[in-house]
Amino acid sequence: MKLSGHLRENVRRLQAVYTDCADVVFHDLLIGGHTPALLVYIEGLIRIDELDRHVVAPLRDAPGPDGDMEAIRRRTAVASVKTVGTFREVVDGIADGCPALLVDGCRDAILFGLTGREQRAVEEPTAESVLRGPREGFIETMRTNIAMLRRKIRNPKLKVVEMRLGTRSNTPLAVIYLEGIVKPSLVREVMSRLKRIEIDDVLETAYIEEWIEDNRYSPFPQLLSTERPDVASAYLLEGRVVIMVDGTPSVLIAPITFFSLLQTPEDYYERYVVGTAIRWLRYFFFAISLLGPSLYVAVVSFHQEMIPTTLMLTMARSREQIPFTALMEAILMETMFEALREAGARLPKQIGSAVSIVGALVIGQAAISAGIVSAPMVMVVAITGIASFMAPRYTIGIPIRLLRFPIMILAGMMGLLGVMLGVIVILNHLLNLRSFGVPYMSPLAPPGRRGLKDVLWRAPRWMLNRRAKR
Amino acid sequence: MRRLPLLLVLLPLCLLPVGGCWNAREVNDLAIITAAGIDRTEDGRIELSVKIYLTSPTGSDGGQMSGQPSSDKGTAVVRSATGINMADAASRLQKMISRTVFWGQTEVFLFGERMARAGLEEPMDFLMRHIASRERSLVFVSERTAKDVMLLAPPIDRSVAEALIAMAEHQTGLNITLKELAQMLVGKSGAVVLPIVRINPVRDKQAAFPYIEGTAVFKDGRMIGELNEQATRGVMWLRNEMKQATVTVTPDDSGGYVSLHLLRNHTRLLPRIEDGRWIMIVRITGQDDIVENTTALDLSEPDHIGKVEEALERLVEDRVKYALELAQKEYRADIFRFADAFWRKYPKIWKANADRWDEIFPEVEVRLEPDLRIARPGLVGKNFFRREQR
User: How far from A355 is each of A342, A352, A374, B189, CA to CA, in Å?
Assistant: First the structure.
């Protein structure tokens, strides 16, 4: 609805909108001593000092009446202003933290860009810390986050397309890409998928993640979320799209492959030999974290002849008094471990150490000496636990933790055959999966020679001089 | 209809637990056999004796599972059963053991001498057919009954099996696995060698321990005789199984001994048929370290090194000839796999003469070509501790 030319009419409408909004301030003033005007803003969202100094003061001290909005705007000392003509725009502007100025006799309103809410300082993201590399992380304010990306990629080709999402929350959202590198069809696809979302509120990027995924039932993440500007810009430079939501430090990256979930920024910040070695170690322990307990259960309850004799005898000795089957034991211990981890993750740091002591003593020492679980089993669980901590992304760690259990049960029922069955089913699923049309397992399947340099090993930088085809 | 795919997935999933864990064997329910002995009783039946590792904690260990058992004694028991054949004996054995007999970890098979002389075909069929037995387990012939060896509790090692494996791995004697035995039994030559296990001392049960000395010679699956330690060395040279050993030689007019450690030995059999004569050229190469020198020779001199090499080659030749003599003349058994070598090089001639191999083998002319080099004479040249050197 258009603004009316009469200030009183507009005020009545706005007051109707903002009934029972104690934090919305209606500030009357007379421009130049006689033209009635109104400033509307929400307390706490604006920089009130600057409003006083650069808007209120100059207008009040204006020498004479000014007929039109343009002249009034020029009196103020604010660089970022916007002239709007509808109620909708005014209300949205106020919600975003822009004070709105309405003047009697004008059919327009001015929005001053004096947004200034409280925000967290830029800190190192705790979930993605590095030993070498930039230590800044995204924060909850999207503006600041985009600025961080701009500072890394100083190029006008870095495009930021903004939109609003959430019929109730009206949350700002930005789609960021590097023109000239990104496939235009990918940007179109991202946009069209975002536009299809019907949602009340977007409190975190996870809200939209579930809407725009290719396979909504897969346990595997098809978008990557990160809190690190360097990671986001690296992916932008690879021609991927970053989706940012105001109010959360984690941004989404699309499309991704399985292997991008197993990479860390440090792979690229360390020397390539080190990067390669660490990457291999990570691949190996990734497999362990999925299959560790299952292989143990399969070998112990089906394929005893596969264990070297001396080890077998020692294991037989330690398993002698255990009342459970290997499968039961494994499920018991793994569940216990997951519980401990979950408990530890939610607790404040001071109490967290108590959990680890209880965990180590109760399920470690006491369970063995009481003869309830065998020592090799505890070792297997411990190794698996450490292996699962090696997953560089929390989001890839979760499906692996989850899938461990069905494979364990298969191993307990069919031995190595069951383990193979489980692996085949999972691989089959992974090979079918796509992230925004990109095969999840590429560049392994379908094979791409350029991409493999950065998957099978971490080739030195001078060899990574061509982008992988997608 | 939309639910159908889901059902198709869920129904087979429901079937999974129905199968259950029917063939799962928990370790707690296994009687792990570490060694098995096979004897032939006087009346021609088969007595199977097995060493079962005791997994339950013994003595004062109590509930504490951690750490080593307090004593090595009493960690294993021997059970034996008699039957008309291997399978029968094995099933009778099972009746006497509360847990499932588990053959998958059997590392040593021992044949009593009477069993060996009667022939190995019958027990071998069971051992090779049985899916659970390891083909990499070692096979020996026992001088006394296999059961006697089973009953030993050697003081150093955890079990008889471990003691025998450790000794065999030192390469002082032959090292034959179940798979190799099977290959020899069906091989072209039809002859088999197996190391012999003896007990020392025989009387004192507490201190007695098994050791490997000598070789049993088989022809057509039956044991026909023994080779002593000296001849065994010769056999090992010819079979290319001499991996490391220490020998002592006396070089000409040196008035002392030189001991050498043999390394990287390799024996090649080069068969040749010339004018109907079957010739086997045996090329022995190796590198040796000198470990002791009590002679007056200065081993930093190349000439002197040559002398020692000559003496060494003579020694090896003597040993090989001794073994050849016994095999060709006394036992007429091709334990060196000459037959396979000839077959590989002259498949057609071999085929025509395969039936006559028993007659040909004793007449095969063997030409020895040893080429043993001293690689490292050691840190000193002369033995400068000798009085006359000062």
Answer: 10, 5, 22, 70
| Cβ-defined contact of A305 to B21 (cutoff 8 Å) | no
Helix ranges (DSSP H) in B204-301: 229-238
To the nearest whole angstrom, how far is the Cα of B135 from the nearest Cα of chain A?
Answer: 11
Domain range annotation of chain A: 7-112, 126-256, 285-452
Contact B134 A317 (CB under 8 A): no
* Residues from chain B contacting residue A415 (CB–CB below 8 Å): 23-24
Write the CATH number of the domain with boundaries B228-390: 3.30.300.210
**Pairwise CB contact (< 8 Å): B19 & A414:** yes
Question: Which of B21, B63, B132 is nearest residue A371 as measured by Cβ atoms?
Answer: B63
**Any idea where the domains of chain B sit in the sequence?**
27-57+71-227, 228-390
Indicate if the alpha-carbon torsion angle A115, A118, A123, A127 is positive or negative.
negative
A380 touches chain B (CB under 8 A): no
pLDDT given for residue B292 in this prediction: 86
Which residues in B have their CB inside 8 Å of a CB on A? 16-17, 19-21, 23-28, 30, 32, 34, 53, 55-57, 63-66, 69, 102, 104-105, 107, 132, 134, 158, 161-162
- pLDDT, tens only, B305-350: 888 888 889 988 998 999 998 888 888 888 888 988 899 999 998 8
pTM for this prediction: 0.82
B68-105 per-position pLDDT tens digit: 443 444 577 888 899 998 889 989 999 888 888 888 88
The complex scores an ipTM of 0.75
Beta-carbon neighbour count of residue A165 at 10 Å?
Answer: 22
**What are the strands, taking DSSP E only, across chain B?**
30-40, 46-53, 76-83, 100-102, 108-112, 138-142, 191-200, 209-219, 222-227, 245-249, 258-274, 277-293, 365-376
